[in-house]
Amino acid sequence: MRPSGPNAPQPSAPLQVKSAVRTLQILEFFDQMREPATAAALSKMLRYPQSSTSALLKSMVTMGYLEFDNRKRTYFPTSRVALIGSWLNPMLFAEGNLVRLVQAVFERTGQIVLLAARNGDHAQYIHVIYPKDDMPRHIVVGQTRSLATSAVGQALLSAHDDSDIRQLLHRLNAYRPGGEVPVPINTLLRTIADIRRDGWATSLSQVDKGTGILATLLPIATTGRPLAIGLAGHSEMLASRRDDLVRVMHEEIERFLGVPKSPTHASSVIEEQQSVRMAPRAPVSNGRLGRESA
Q: Of 151, 201, 240, 291, which is least surrounded by CB within 10 A?
């Protein structure tokens, strides 16, 4: 017997993959609401089952399309969402300046160039450009790294004040996996102070022996949230060419984004950007974001 009622499939309706539809509707939800949301709020607003909503959100975090605030238990789109379609119309993403910045650094250095953003307690790669003959498996879009020990993570942390970093490190150390050595908080704070002063962070041979990353924070007044640009390559090359590579990154940052470095503490800048992003907003329309057939 064929099912009937408002949720019954229509003979002429095109096939829809439920998870794909829900993924796009979640992104549309954030496009309209323009503020972080919990899994429960998304489930209620979009009328999805709580369990499948949570599973889908976690998958989108893993792939780098959503970031998760562990303290507030909220989700919000990452810059990866904007980057994914920037090639269609560069004017839609900061007039294409961020994408062109990465390309310019790549052309001048010949090295792997990446963008990273904070996602919960990790740094996550959201955009990567490789030389044609070099595509390492450990540097891919969506890959996460430690905020406390990676170059991109420490560069991102330099945007926050020391009290915020202490709070984060206390939590990371408290919930670290068994056998993992705790991060010395005072040592890390000294490292962060050096990064703020010098304008760069580096990590060598952490994932792949003999390779490393050199990273610097992008100006949050322009990007709206902490983002770091990094160069990946052989450790010896990064060490020997460090000053030149840092100069290239800062020159291109100033060229495309207007200022060479972010302010020492960017919390107020982030809050201002969030307030602009969150208001005003249009009400959610049932027609656009309604639940598809269960």
A: 240
Q: Is 90 within 8 Å of 73 (Cβ atoms)?
A: no
Percent of the chain residues past pLDDT 70, beyond the cut: 77
In 3D, which of 80, 78, 85 has the Cα closest to residue 141? 80
CA proximity to 79, closest of 134, 125, 130, 136: 125
Long-range contacts (CB closer than 8 Å, 24 or more residues apart) made by 249-253: 249/105, 249/200, 249/214, 249/216, 250/199, 250/216, 252/101, 252/104, 252/105, 252/108, 253/101, 253/216, 253/218, 253/219, 253/229
The residues facing 144 across adjacent strands are 124
What's the pLDDT tens digit per position in 238-280?
999 999 999 999 999 999 988 655 544 555 554 554 454 445 5
| Residue spans of alpha helices (H) in 199-263 | 220-223, 235-240, 242-257
What's the pLDDT at 152? 97
Beta bridge partners of 233: 212
Q: For the chain, what percent of residues have pLDDT higher than 90?
A: 43
Instruction: Kindly report the pTM of this predicted structure.
Output: 0.68
Q: How many CB atoms lie under 10 A from the CB of residue 73?
A: 12
Radius of gyration of the chain, Cα coordinates, nearest whole angstrom: 21
Residue 232 CA from chain centroid, whole number: 18
* Domains recognised in the chain with CATH numbers: 18-77 (1.10.10.10), 80-274 (3.30.450.40)
Output the CA torsion sign for 81, 118, 274, 190: negative
DSSP class per residue in 86-112: TTT-GGGTGGGHHHHHHHHHHHHH-SE
